[in-house]
Amino acid sequence: MATRTTTRETRRPARTAEPVETVAAPPDGGTSLGRLTELRIRGLGAIDDVTLELGDGLTVVTGETGAGKTMVVTGLTLLFGGRADPGRVRANGRAGVEGRLALPADSPVWERAADAGADPDDDGTLILARTVSAEGRSRAHLGGRSVPVGVVAELAEGLLAVHGQSDQLRLSRPAEQRRALDRYAGTAHLELLDRYREAYTRWRQLAGDLERRRGQARELAQAADVLRHGLEEIEAAGPQPGEDAELDAQARRLSDADALRAAADEARTALVGDVTGDLGDDLPQDASAALAIAERALAASDDPTLVMLAQDLNDAVAVVSDVAGQLATYVADLDADPARLAEVMDRRAAITALVRKYADVGDGVDGVLAWAEDARRRLDELDVSDEALEALEAARDAARTEVDDLGAQVSAGRRAAAEGFAAEVGRELAGLAMKSARVSFSIESDPDAPGPEGIDEVALLMAAHPGAPPRPVHKGASGGELSRVMLAIEVVFAGADPVPVMVFDEVDAGVGGQAAGEIGRRLARLARRHQVVVVTHLAQVAAFADTHLVVDKSPDTGAGVTATDIRAVDGEDRVRELARMLSGLTDSDTGQAHARELLAVAATARAAA
User: Which of 186, 187, 276, 551 is deepest in the core (most CB within 10 A)?
Assistant: First the structure.
């Protein structure tokens, strides 16, 4: 992995067209969810301009206090639609974050991105960008298109989960806790929940329709009368599809019958002459006679070429005769009846009146027929007769019965899953320096008040130590504890969560020793199916990383401010960074020996996992 640091705007080399990247499967054969391959941060906090090429698995970010480690998390949060803080923008007046996402072809993100007009880059990745000015103005771009920040935030729900000291909204929301429990309950439970949602929607629609009809019976009856009157008027006229255009054509033919007959007669005479003998002998030679003379002259020759041309003339005589016959038929069928013309004009006037009354401009008679079809449908919805109301009430009650039945099944599934879920999270917490913590679910059901997600109010509770009363987890845990609870939950769900990128900001706060190693072990396990980015100050956690980034700060004498550099370390550089984290001294022999031991222990633990 390479890490680039710049202090000025850089230009990327031109890309050549490549097939869409296929994201490599994780080591255990699971399906990859995608990953963030590149992150560029400009003008944010202490960062001037850095570009990080991120790898698979677990990436740790370390560095001295105040170096700007959390700016990496801030940049990620900003990139994915988080709130823009103008106070983080450097003196140059604009901060920017860009990211490159490699996603599998079946990722739902592609469909939403396409709806927003976004296009993949030449290498098949999706580029996100966000800029923030010192005045607080913010812009977002997705796949080369400017989009509302809300679109990116919507995508982030399926792309990124951030867990940190000050970002615990996901875990603190009861709705999120309920979703976590439903997901833990399994596929069959989720399918049952989908059926409940459909039944609930149907019940609410029927109940709302019934209430509307009863509460607005008079208004609806009047509206129905208007629709019925219109339908009666249309049905009495009986317009047919396309009839207005046909009437226009008929009216033109009837009005111009004499002129049309004269034109047809003149053309027929020019082709075949006066077949009736009524026009005298002074007519010019017709086309048919001229062609016949020419055909006979050529046919009398012995020259093969002229004989062939004679045959072509013979074919031409046949074509002329055929056209003349069609003209004769046209003249014979031409109607010059004034009564018929009057009839057509009256019909056209009646159709025009309907079009003006019931169709939008330009829709013609087809718009009238569409209005009639819609009116018939609306009449069913406006029916306030006793029979209609009784049928609707019966349908509503049947739907409510289905809601009650499915709601009870969903509630039972949640209660059955709650104990196992809490026990698994508790076991994970035991290894995260929270051995005394107890996690449980409070599930309060109200069958008389079903909601869109069931009949239950679900809350995740935690007792921090023996004897402590269970409290909502976001109230019963400190910031560091809350991060570890979230980590425990994510580990329980490893491989099931569709979010490809997870970020943990100092989840090891207040932890040391063996517990720190357990945090590293669990993060590494989570990183088998997800891309995990962790900001940490513990060497025991950093030792488990696939990619180790170090944030350094140095005075920028030119600008008079502190600048931040981010570099990737491996080999001896990584040993020295771990030694600094352990002892504060990069060149300490004892610290380096301890660092090498940590790396060996972590490698053994990862291999055995």
Answer: 551
